[in-house]
Known about the structure:
This protein is an all-alpha fold. The chain has helices at 9-18, 23-37, 45-57, 62-76, 86-102, 108-116, 119-124, 129-142, 146-161, 165-170, 177-191, 201-213, 219-227, 230-240, 245-259, 262-269, 273-278, 286-302, 316-319, 323-331, 348-355, 361-379, 385-396, 402-414. Helix 3 runs antiparallel to helix 4 and helix 11 (177-191) runs antiparallel to helix 12 (201-213). The longest helix has 19 residues, at 361-379. The N and C termini lie far apart (78 Å).
Amino acid sequence: MIVTGETNEAQILSTLQTYKNRQTYLQKALYNLFIITRNYKETSAEILQNISDVMISKLKSQSIQLAATTCVYNLTKQNMYQKAPTLLLTKLINTIITVMLSFPDTLLQKNCLIVLCNESMLNNCIYNKLECIKATLECLSNFKDQTTISSSIAICAQVCLNADLNLRKQFKKIKEQKYLRSLLNTILIHMRRFGHIHHDESVTHSSLDIIFYLSEENSDWCRSFITLNGLNVYHELIEVFESDPSALFKILCMMYKLSEIAEIRSILFSHSISKGIKRLLDHEDLNINFLSMGYIANFLGHMTYSHWDWNFIKFDDMKYALKPRIDFVKLNWKTNLSQMPEYKQLSLDYLLELTRMHNEPFTQIWSIWALNVYYSINCGLKDTNSCKIVLNKLVNEDETSPLIKKFCSDLISLN
Length: 415
């Protein structure tokens, strides 16, 4: 005999297993299960499995999903998820992501976000992370309340931050302008609250992270950034966050990425944001200095004088006063910049191309420094040989100027 009912856990589980086609029974059972599990200190794999089965069998039922997701939260919050089987967690998280995409503009989104807003679980479980990014960006596009915005951005940023190489290669599949528009609008809203009691700086920082991470090998995303007036937003951000090195670094990551793209470079140069970035060249924060220098190096290396109104921004102090830059790079040659995950987007082929621009020593100086950072990230700090090979090649090339030859020789002696 199977005893179903609502009194205790065993009866509720029997109801979930027996009446899979009786929506009213299932909904009431899930409600009572939510009440029972509110004070649980440990998860139950059996309960989670039954909830998962119901969620999958009733994917089109919003009321069932509303009740089920509250129960899932009770059993996975904080570190409770750790005692659940890995395959079960994978199935549950993927189901929740599917539910989010199936009901994009309903209150069910908030239940799903509460479950997913668990940094430890997001980092340690296996699930469809690209779909998770899409689901949270979709949520951001459809809701305007602060709690939903903050949760969506926190989850999306966490997944992007911990993306492996395979996932990063898939970022180019995310092309929807509405996602980028929502992120830029969120930044604008929070920037204008800057200094107010309700200002949440983490939302701005995380939005900047997402915009940059999704730009990797994603030319459509970068072009949309220009179309949606992202440059104006970022220019204003530089002024607002002038004393916040972390925010400036995130802004410069995106600006450097854009300066690598030939079709965007001329737009950047004629925008006043370039003047703002030039002023950051002597910033006390080394990462800001590194990226500002890289931004300018891209212009000097790729474009001849005929392409620009060089009166708009004067670069004489960088093109001809090179000794301070050389001394600065030598001084910081062994400083470890490889802790910054954003530098994983540096392109080896692109940097090697810059080292061969013999008519622009400023560009060569920076690209050599950037190569050292690249090899530190991808080959480890103990691998000094990869960079030394490039330095020796430049020393032995006839086209290399005496200034750069000496610079490379000095760096070889530092390794």
